[in-house]
Amino acid sequence: MVLAELARSNMFLVALDANGEWYRYHHLFGELLQLELGGEEALVRRRRAAAWCRAQGLVEDAIEYAAAAGDAETVAELLVEHDRAQAIGRTLARAARADLVLIAGKGHENYQIYGSERRAFSDQALVRAYFAGES
Which of 3, 12, 70, 125 is most buried, by the most CB atoms less than 10 A from its CB? Predict the structure, then answer.
């Protein structure tokens, strides 16, 4: 109930769901905490947040926290996807306009092997479709 009251006051917390199970700090309060908890302590907290988000299956949030903590190894682990299309799409979405994205693989093939199954798949077609949807 205390969390719900704080969220209703819109001073310290913001509810992320209708059930009142998920909250985040109000952005101004979060900035104050970051200023107060600078340095190594902030990095430790971001690593802990990344680990918690990872355990909850919140991969995007875990990546953001790990990146903010400078934990490149965890970011790399989190970016590894079993779904190649999802991995490519996520990487393209995270890349800045001036970034160079290298998609390694056999770009000339139009299939991907899943176990013993051969499925139609083209890295080139996926990238073309991604950029065709952007303006």
Answer: 12
